[in-house]
Every structure is written in structure tokens, then in C-alpha cells.
Amino acid sequence: MQTRLIAALLFNLAAALPGAAQSTDSTSGDTVRSSDIWQTSDSRTGLRITSGHAYNRVEGLPVLVGPWIRGSIGATSLRLDVLGIIRTADSFHWDEGNVGHSITLDARNADRAGRGWSANLSSFDVVDAVEPWQMGSAESGLASFFFHRDYRDYFGKHGAKASASLLMSAHSSVTAEFSDERWKSRSARQVFSIWRNGARWRANPKLDEGRFHVGVLRARLDSRNNPETPSTGWNVLAEYEIGTGRMTDAGLMSAFARSSALQKVTYGRAFFDLRGYNRLSPASQLNARLVLGGWLNGDPLPMERRLSVGGPGTLPGYDYRDATLPGTDVAQCNADALPPPGIPAQCDRVALAQLEYRSELHGNFFDAINARPIRIRGIGFTVRPAVVAFVDAGRGWLVGPRAGDLRYPSGSFPRPGTFRSDVGLGIDLGMIGVYAAKAVSVQKEPVNVSVRVSRRF
């Protein structure tokens, strides 16, 4: 029964991937949430079950169940979701780690172009990812379910948050958030996978624990002609986060591991993700991405806010969390002789550059297939094959007095020759992409072949 439920919910998890078509409620005109496995409603209330867009070695599949209520005050639309969370890890074992909740109240006032404002209040007891920027939760979840490969680390997050956004368009906004959060380490549990089921999962690293007040200012600018399959425009994310709290327990590789308990911590972190899409001809385009992020001011970053590179989401020519490469570890910034359990991200800062050339393939066969989307359990897909050639370069580093190629002063930048780089070639079929990447800055590394169910960026 557990396997059948997980398989059914994973079909809906796949609906959260880029390129999956959404359906529209013919009576209300609202877009039906693609993650819903089941929903019953009238015009203002309903009950739904959703997959939570995740599957991982800590939770298994989080199943969210509960009612929602929709209403309005003048031109402002309101929606309340009250969802309990039941996790499938350890065969639905009923314990503190396998239950949680997510309660959200959304208010939105926007015109047809998406301009206006929105506000949100939420209470949560969830499992969150340490580095969600590298790979989406749906794609990472499918890799975990089918191939026993989890490309993320996780921690428990329990608290409440308030946010407000100024909406400049349907996809561009400026948001301010404030939250009160309790962070707690989570361990890998017994979670089902198709391939290598029963094998030991990579350890989920022990992270810092404590209570933090977190403020975030975030700006998004999205001028892409199509958010799912862009060929022109920009997608820019700029974020500054300030956190202050008291540490109750430190992770194994934490900067606070040798400090006394209940230490007060205040940190500042910035993160920038710039993506540009340029059409060269009706069938070809040149796309680029630049990521810069990490410590900016205050105390050292907690483990939950540290960064890394490597793996299919950033440098596909290198294995994810690979501690066997010779020389300085500029991927995870591990300075110890032996890799710690789970090989956590330890970098204060990272820099990543990606460049790709895409050329679409055309033919009568593909044109006939694309006349109508391929539908799998109501999810629409199209096959738009394109050859993709790419090059990537990136690394992480620690901030402090110069020490080899791992630690640099705050105002300096690592030498270009210390970056890890790769080149590759692949074919993107729209629904799925297959890529081969070869590391060029480390000798004798074999070619890595990866399968993606979303675009590289």
C-alpha cells in the first residue's frame, strides 16, 4: 500500500517540474494546483491532498492533508490553507520526526498584469533544504525515488513567518520577510527507492541547532518571454539575509563547534543569481548564468546557510559531494584530512558561471508529436529536442587570513586558475535531457552522464 501511494503521489510531484502543463477549473477560472493528488471543493472551501513537491532520505514523501478556505474583501483575495504533514519515512512510523504542519494565510491584490501587493502569514513545522538553489525539490525527489541519489541536505524548521511583497508584474517583485525559527538536525531514515532499495543512504550531516530570528529582503526581476522554456530576457534574484539567534548545539564541522553552548550569533548573507537568455536565430540561443553568494558581515555563517558547488546542478563534470579529488577541496571547503559524515557544505562564499549554446532540432516526426501535448495522468508534455553544448566553472572558499587556495581575505577573490571547470554536450527533449560532462581542471576524471527532467537553468 505504501509503495502504491508513493507512486501515485510522485506522478503529481512530476507535475511541479518545469514544462508540465497546468489545468484550469472551468467553473471558477482558477488554475488547479498541479501538486494536488486529490481535491474536492465548492467555490470557497475545499479539502486537498498534496505531495509537497518533495521526496528525500529524511522524510520520504511528505503528504499534506487538510482544508482550504477562499474569500475576498473588496479587490483583495484571501486564501487560508491548514495542512497537516505525514511523512512516509520508516513506513509511516508515528513519531515526532514524521509529523508536522503548514498553515498559511495569503492576501493578494493585483491587476490583470500582476501589479499590486501581497502579504502572507504562516506557521510551519517542516523539513527544509540547506541549498535549494542548486536543484529543484521535485527533480531531486525523483532522483531519490528512482536512483537512490539525494542531491540535497536537510534540517528541521519550526516557527512562524510574516512577509509582504510589492508586485511589479506577474513574475517580478520585491519582498520583505521576518521569521522566528527553531532549527534542528535531522537524520537519514529508512526511505524506499526503486534502485538500491535497502542500501544505506548518504548521511544527512549534523548541522547547527538553535532559535533564530531571520529577516530577508529579496528582489526578483523576470523579463523572460516564457518562464518554462525561455529564449529571451533576464531572470535575476538578489537577496540579503540577516539572522540573529542563540545556538544550542553545533554541527560537527561548524565554526561554533568549539564554542560554549547557548552562544549568541548574528550573521549577514547575500545571494545573487543572474540568468540571461539570448536568441541568436529562430532555432538557436546563447544562455548564461552567474551565481555569487555567501557571508557578508557579522559572525560566521551557521551550517544551514553555508554553500558548495559540484554535481549535476552546478558542475556536472564532478560528482556531488565528492571528497576523493586531489588537492584543495574548493567544492565543499572541507579543510580536514578526512571527509566528515555526509560531507556537508562548508564554504563561506561561492562563485559559479555557466554558459550554454542551444540549437533546436526540427523534423516532421517532432512536429507531429507536438501538435498536441503528450499527457501522463493529465500532465501535458511536449517534445522539443535541442542539442546543448555547455561550459561551467565554479568554486567555494572560506573568508579569513590567506591560507593556501582555500581561505581568502574578505575583500579579495580567488585566482581564476583555482576554479573547477567542465565542458559537456547533451540533448534536451523537453520532457527529459541527457548530458555528458567532462572535468577539465582535474586530470583523469571520467565522463559523467546525468539525466535531468528540467533545463540546466
- Tell me what portion of residues adopts beta-strand conformation: over 45%
Alpha-beta content class: mainly beta
Helical content (DSSP H or I, runs of 4+): under 10%
Largest sheet entry: 18 strands, mixed
Total number of beta strands: 20
Shape: globular
Summarize the helix and strand pattern as letters.
HEEEEHEEHEEEEEEEHEEEEEEE
Task: For the record, give the distance between the C-alpha atoms at the N and C termini, rounded to a whole number.
Answer: 36 Å
The Cα radius of gyration reads 22 Å
Segments where pLDDT lies below 50 for 5+ residues? Answer: 19-35
Discrete helix count: 4
Question: How confident is the prediction overall: mean pLDDT?
Answer: 87
Brief characterization of the structure:
The chain has 457 residues and is mainly beta.
Description:
The protein is 7% helix and 46% strand. It is mostly beta strands. The strands form 2 sheets. The chain has an 18-stranded mixed β-sheet that branches.
Comma- or semicolon-separated keywords:
7% helix; mainly beta; 46% strand; 457 residues; 18-stranded mixed sheet; two-stranded antiparallel sheet
Structural topology:
Blueprint: H1 2-14, E1 36-41, E2 45-50, E3 62-73, E4 76-87, H2 89-92, E5 99-110, E6 116-129, H3 137-147, E7 154-167, E8 173-185, E9 209-222, E10 233-249, E11 263-281, E12 284-298, E13 349-360, H4 364-369, E14 374-376, E15 379-381, E16 386-399, E17 407-408, E18 420-428, E19 433-439, E20 448-452
Parallel strand pairs: 16-17
Antiparallel strand pairs: 1-2, 2-3, 3-4, 4-5, 5-6, 6-7, 7-8, 8-9, 9-10, 10-11, 11-12, 12-13, 13-16, 14-15, 16-18, 18-19, 19-20
